[in-house]
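Is 2-phosphoglycolic acid placement plausible here? Inputs below.
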Amino acid sequence: MNIQIFDDVRTLSAELATRVLTEVRLQPSLVLGLPTGRTPLPFYQALRAAPAADWSLVRTFNLDEFAGVSPGSPASYRAYMQRELFGPMGVADENVGFLNGTAADLDAECARYERAIAAAGGIDLMILGIGANGHIGFNEPGPDLHARTHRAQLQPGTRASNAALFGGDVSRVPESALSMGMATILQSKAVVLIATGAAKAGVVRAMMNGRITTSVPASFLQLHPCVTVMLDREAASRR
Ligand code: PGA
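Reply from A.M.:
I modeled the complex. Tokens:
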């Protein structure tokens, strides 16, 4: 893993935005994998503030979406991405890959997503956050992990950390979601994982230096040949 440590979140986010924009300029039809959550918000802000780039050919696939939450709901990850990136950057709907948590057949929806990623030629650059429990996407710790896009049961801590999208009421956060699987993520050509804040320091250490274990799904990134881990000082403090 290539480790980069930054003085603060702003510098980290600006550097990642520069990397993404450089890749978009070099490869206008870049296929990007994208995360939601609190960590990437300053990164999306940095992209919005950057000099204009041509996003007309860029295609995106987000990691996950809540089951039972429609794309039009403000609580959906689809709506988050529209607010934070797709709207401001003018990413056209037809270039956006997203799981639909209200599809009639969720298993068929997961299979459709796998086919869509494959038809795009796979993901060139996958940007990830990490949960305090070691999850990436909604691949939660457990006795085993799913290889492919699947329905995931959310752990209580994961639901709690998403409560803000549901008016702060954790009971309204769905108990399940759809998520890219571990193989889907690991088949990306390059991966960048970002983590900020002291609350992530322990799990960052386990991810980078611990055993590869389904108890820390992000530890499987140790097997990927092209991973960059971007940390602020707090998240790097226990390495
Ligand atoms: P966070 O979530 O950025 O809100 O901490 C990260 C994640 O769960 O992947």
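Short version: Residues 2-186+198-232 form a domain with the Rossmann fold fold (CATH 3.40.50.1360).
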